[in-house]
Design brief:
The chain contains 12 helices and 12 strands. By secondary structure, the protein is of the alpha/beta class. It folds into 2 domains: 42 residues; 233 residues, Spore Coat Polysaccharide Biosynthesis Protein SpsA, Chain A. The chain binds 2-acetamido-2-deoxy-beta-D-glucopyranose (3 copies).
């Protein structure tokens, strides 16, 4: 056999073996990525850590009317000045759901991405009520002027009420904002990309990462558990992930008004973006993958440039991501050849 025919039929050709090796390596890496993703979606960690939330939903048996709650929740602390006080245009207001015990998260956000746009933290109070820890919150609010504190028991299951309070506060203190970005304190925001997302979507009412055809979690130990007595249907056609979504300022009032007619659900994103905005008001939701509820598997400076939000980061990770992003921005570096770093395959 000549070398050529050997190659054609593929017997023990070193070049072909080499190709298989690369293929095998790719398969192995991909399998790792998929397994990581699967583990992530199984929510193993959270399921083990959290107590059954069912008890915390009992107040919904008494009433699920938003007004019954809003009328009784007082505002305890709010900033005296905001960029919304004057006549200037306010393109974006960011409200971050936080909790009294999460000072480390607020501090890292203050020192990083919040420097680029008006950002406020929205908190409830510790379940014990107004006690010693409230003094710390008061001092923190006085020092930074960026806290909005409500007389609401701060609990994951009360996020829907907290989001309603965010809308109400925005209407009162910043009705001229063009967009409200609702996010959480474990989210990293890339302010430069968020600006682009705003420009690309200025005509839409709600913009976020659209989750299609999901099912409600019926296991009481799941963080996103929602019992059948709150919503009977398992299927959810679409909603925008609560890790970060934009609401067009013009529609906040309509959404809050409609919410007063829709019985409350503990899942704030499903409630506001699907039940109220989509189902009740007939608003179209806009999907934008850059408002990602995931994070990059590989953490390099270019991993963060193409996304406007990244979810589930520790304070250290937020700080590291910011440092890396600044490197790209300050050096005017282009990441055009590294777009794969933030493609769906490398997010988990
Ligand atoms: C949620 O807030 C309501 C009203 O303040 C309160 O009755 C309820 O106990 C809170 N739920 C939790 C889990 O703290
Ligand atoms: C959900 O569906 C919309 C169209 O209805 C689509 O644009 C979007 O990409 C889908 N979301 C995801 C995460 O694939
Ligand atoms: C950054 O790069 C862009 C395009 O590559 C260029 O137009 C711009 O002038 C650069 N800015 C600085 C400060 O170097």
């Amino acid at each position: 056999m000549t070398k050529n025919t050997q190659e054609m039929i593929g017997i023990s050709s070193p070049r072909i073996y080499g190709r298989y090796k690369i293929l095998l390596l790719c398969l192995a890496v991909y399998a790792l990525v998929v397994l990581t993703k699967l583990w992530h979606s199984a929510e193993i960690g959270q399921a083990l850590l959290l107590p059954a939330p069912a008890d915390h939903l009992e107040h919904y048996r008494r009433t699920r009317r938003l007004e019954d709650y809003l009328d009784n929740i007082q505002i305890l602390i709010e900033p005296s000045h905001t960029p919304c006080d004057g006549p200037e245009r306010v393109p974006l207001l960011v409200l971050v759901a936080s909790a009294p015990g999460r000072l480390d998260r607020r501090d890292v956000i203050r020192g990083t991405w919040a420097k680029r746009q008006p950002t406020y933290f929205v908190l409830g109070t510790e379940p014990q009520g107004i006690d010693g820890s409230f003094a710390d919150i008061y001092l923190e609010a006085k020092e930074h002027g960026d806290m909005i504190v409500f007389d609401l028991v701060d609990h994951y299951q009360n996020l829907t009420l907290k989001t309603a309070l965010m809308l109400q506060w925005t209407l009162r203190r910043c009705p001229q904002t063009e967009f409200l970005f609702k996010t959480d304190d474990d989210v990293f925001v890339n302010p430069w990309m968020l600006e682009e997302v705003l420009q690309d979507n200025e005509d839409y009412k709600l913009v976020g990462y659209m989750k299609n055809n999901s099912r409600l979690h019926r296991d009481a130990y799941n963080k996103w558990f929602s019992p059948r007595w709150l919503r009977f249907e398992d299927h959810l056609p679409e909603y925008l992930s609560g890790t970060g979504y934009l609401i067009n300022g013009e529609y906040i009032e309509k959404i809050l008004k409609a919410a007063k007619k829709v019985p409350l659900l503990n899942l704030e994103d499903v409630y506001f973006t699907y039940l109220v905005a989509k189902e009740n008001l007939g608003f179209n939701l806009k999907h934008d993958r850059r408002l990602s509820p995931y994070k990059p598997l590989i953490s390099t400076p270019c991993s963060y440039v193409g996304l406007a939000s990244i979810h589930s980061l520790s304070p250290d990770e937020i700080y590291a991501a910011w440092t890396k992003l600044l490197k790209v921005v300050n050096n005017n570096q282009t990441c055009d050849n590294y777009k794969f770093l933030y493609s769906d395959w490398l997010l988990y």
